[in-house]
Design a protein that fits this description.
371 residues; binds S-adenosyl-L-homocysteine; 11 helices; alpha/beta; ten-stranded mixed β-sheet; 14 strands; elongated
Length: 371
C-alpha cells in the first residue's frame, strides 16, 4: 500500500526469514509454511517428501509445542530441524473469563515479547475465535483502542494460526468459526492473511470451512479487489460506521484515501465476483451517527443490496469520549433499516466485563494498564 498522511508509519516487513540487524537469515518459521513449502524445505534438506505430511500434521492437527513430540520423526531429523527452523508457539500470559457469557479473552506472548489478544466466543452454532492480525494498528479509527499506540508489526502466519490452535487446546473443544476482527487491519498484512486463510481451511490442517471465516476491514480498496480475485469463500465485513463521506472521514482517517462511494463500489464488485454477501458493521455512537436521519441515509446507501448490517453499540474506550446510544435509540435505528428491507441485527455485546468486546483490544499488558 502507498503511504498516506493520516496513517502511521509503514510496518516492518513481515518476512520471518530475515532479521533486519543481521545478514544471516533467521531460522525458517516451520509453522508459517504451506504443505508445499514444507515439502520444498525438507527436500532441500535431502529428506523424503512424505515427511512433510507427517510434520504438517504434528504442527497443524496435533498442535505440538516441541520438536521432541514428533515421535514418528527420527531423532536425527528432529535435531536438524531444531538447528535450522523454529517452532512458533504462543504462550498465554493471562486468560480472563467473562462472568456474563462464555467469552474468554487470551493475552498471548509472541516469541519476540510482543503481546496480542484473542477472544473466544461461545455461540449456539459453535466456538468462534476472534484473532489479531497485527501488533497494534496504523489505521487510526477514532473510536478504537487498538489504534491508540499505532502499529508495531505484522503478525506472521504461524502467529495467526497459533491463536486458533491454543484457544482450541485450552477449551478442549473444536473451533468452528474464525473472525479476523481483533487487533490490527488484516488487509494491511495481506500476504500473510491470504496464506493464513488458506492453511486454516485446507484439508491437511484444522479444516475450518471458508464459509465460517470472516475478515473485517476498514476499507482498503485495492486489497478488497485482490481478495475478491482469490475466490476464497470467506465473508467480508466492511467497517462502515457512517453513511456519508463527511461523517466517515471524521471517524476513520482511512476514508480520506478510500472514500465512501468507492468503498461501496468495491463491495458491490466483491459480491458480484464471489456471490458472498457483505456484512456492514456500524458502531452506534451517541450524538455522532445514531440519529434517525443517519438511519435513513444508511438505508439509501444500502438500498437493494444483498447485505447484512451489524449494529454495534460503541464500546467505551478510556481515552475517548464516545458513548453508546440508549437502547431505544438503537432499536429505532434498527427499525428504520428494517422498514427499508435491510437485513439488520444489533450485535449482542459479549465479553464487555473483560474488555473483550470490539475495539477494546489493546496492548494492555505491554502498556502496563490494568484490564
Ligand atoms: N481493522 C479491522 C478489524 C478490527 S476491528 C476493521 O476495521 O474492520 C473490528 C470491528 O470493531 C470493526 O468494525 C471496528 O470498526 C469495530 N470497532 C472498533 N472500535 C470499536 C468500539 N470502541 N466499539 C465498537 N466497535 C468498535
Amino acid at each position: 500500500m502507498e503511504r498516506s498522511a493520516p496513517m502511521k508509519k509503514e510496518p516492518d516487513q513481515n518476512q520471518p526469514n530475515t532479521h533486519p540487524l543481521s545478514k544471516t537469515p533467521a531460522p525458517a518459521d516451520l509453522k508459517s509454511m504451506t504443505l508445499g513449502q514444507l515439502r520444498q524445505f525438507l527436500s532441500a534438506m535431502g529428506e523424503k517428501p512424505y515427511r512433510a505430511e507427517q510434520i504438517y500434521e504434528w504442527l497443524h492437527v496435533r498442535h505440538i509445542t516441541s520438536f521432541e513430540q514428533m515421535t514418528n520423526i527420527s531423532k536425527s531429523l528432529r535435531s536438524r530441524l531444531e538447528d535450522s527452523a523454529v517452532l512458533t508457539v504462543l504462550r498465554p500470559l493471562q486468560i480472563h473469563n467473562s462472568r456474563l457469557d462464555g467469552t474468554k479473552k487470551y493475552l498471548f506472548a509472541l516469541p519476540d515479547g510482543n503481546v496480542i489478544e484473542s477472544v473466544r466466543m461461545k455461540y449456539r452454532h459453535g466456538n468462534s475465535v476472534c484473532i489479531s492480525s497485527q501488533v497494534g494498528c496504523r489505521m487510526g479509527c477514532r473510536f478504537c483502542a487498538s489504534a491508540i499506540d499505532g502499529l508495531v508489526r505484522n503478525l506472521h502466519v504461524s502467529e495467526m494460526l497459533e491463536q486458533v490452535y491454543r484457544v482450541g487446546q485450552d477449551i478442549g473443544e473444536r473451533i468452528s468459526h474464525v473472525v479476523v476482527m481483533g487487533m490490527g487491519e488484516p488487509l494491511d498484512n495481506f500476504e500473510n492473511l491470504l496464506r493464513f486463510l488458506t492453511m486454516l481451511s485446507d484439508d491437511h490442517g484444522i479444516r475450518i470451512g471458508q464459509r465460517n471465516i470472516t475478515v473485517s476491514t476498514c476499507g482498503i480498496i485495492p486489497r478488497i479487489r485482490e481478495l475478491a480475485d482469490t475466490r476464497l469463500s470467506i465473508t467480508l465485513a466492511l467497517s462502515l460506521h457512517a453513511a456519508s463521506q463527511e461523517a466517515r472521514r471524521k471517524l476513520m482517517p482511512v476514508a480520506e484515501k478510500y472514500p465512501l462511494q468507492a468503498v461501496i463500489e468495491a463491495c458491490d464488485d466483491y459480491f458480484a465476483k464471489t456471490g458472498r454477501r457483505i456484512t456492514f458493521e456500524y458502531s452506534l455512537i451517541r450524538g455522532i451517527n445514531d440519529a434517525k436521519a443517519d438511519a435513513e441515509r444508511l438505508s439509501r446507501l444500502l438500498k437493494n443490496k444483498n447485505c447484512h448490517v451489524n449494529l454495534i453499540p460503541v464500546n467505551p474506550v478510556r481515552e475517548r469520549p464516545y458513548e453508546q446510544p440508549d437502547r431505544e435509540a438503537a432499536l429505532a435505528f434498527q427499525n428504520i433499516l428494517e422498514k427499508n428491507k435491510i437485513n439488520v441485527t444489533i450485535r449482542r455485546e459479549i465479553g464487555r466485563d473483560i474488555n473483550g468486546a470490539c475495539g477494546q483490544l489493546r496492548k494492555s499488558y505491554a502498556a502496563g494498564h490494568e484490564m
